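Lecture 7 notes: from sequence to structure.
We start with the chain below.
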Amino acid sequence: MLKNIIFTVLLVFMTGCAVTKTAYTERTQVMLMSEEEELSIGESEAKKILQSSKVSSDWIAKARVERIGKRIAEVSEKDYNWEFHLIEEDVLNAFCLPGGKVFVYTGILKIAENDDQLATVMSHEIAHALARHGAERVSMAKMNQVGHTLLSAVLNIENPAYKQIFDTAYGVGTNVALMLPHSRDNESEADYIGLVLMAKAGYDPKEAIGFWENMKKQKGSSEQMPFLSTHPTDDKRIEDIRASLPKVMNEVNR
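Predicted structure tokens for the same chain:
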């Protein structure tokens, strides 16, 4: 019976499983979501956001965001249906949905002192889409669930109280030891790819340091403990960016 359960779970897991490589970093990814599914989700979510959010009426700021976004998109070598939207909300946020739907919040404009710094955050978010980090997180979650099912079957825990303890321990353990570190690695990878993109688009990647220093000042001491965070600390981010700048310029100039 146990062998049948394990075989069935593994069969379901392997169906539709694909191995890909990320742009620029060439890191191997295991994907359980097709690019077609991913793009469909991006299109759908973009429409929902535009319906529920207030698009900025500041045509100068909107033109700035679109101009920078288009320059980065042109060097991305990805044939997406690119869109660039400025959302009127005082939050430090920007993101790019699958398929190149980029959203920048007006709060970001307060700490991006020049076009190079705005290109820093926009290229970072575009890098997430190019590296398919969203689909990768969904795939990781599915693999995590497969691991839970297999281990639960092997241990054959029948007592409901013990099963609850197991479920909680497994969830917390995999989150801290696997999911959160992977999320932080994705952020660092997006930082690197973003630096390459902005440099290729003619923006100064050294300005990324200034942008993240501004972000650090704005956030003050509100950062979480590093091992419980989805993102690297701003200090770690700045340190890594400084270290990677020579490699970025070699990538751009070769």
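Points to note: Residues 8-253 form one domain. The CA atoms of residues 226 and 233 lie 6 Å apart.
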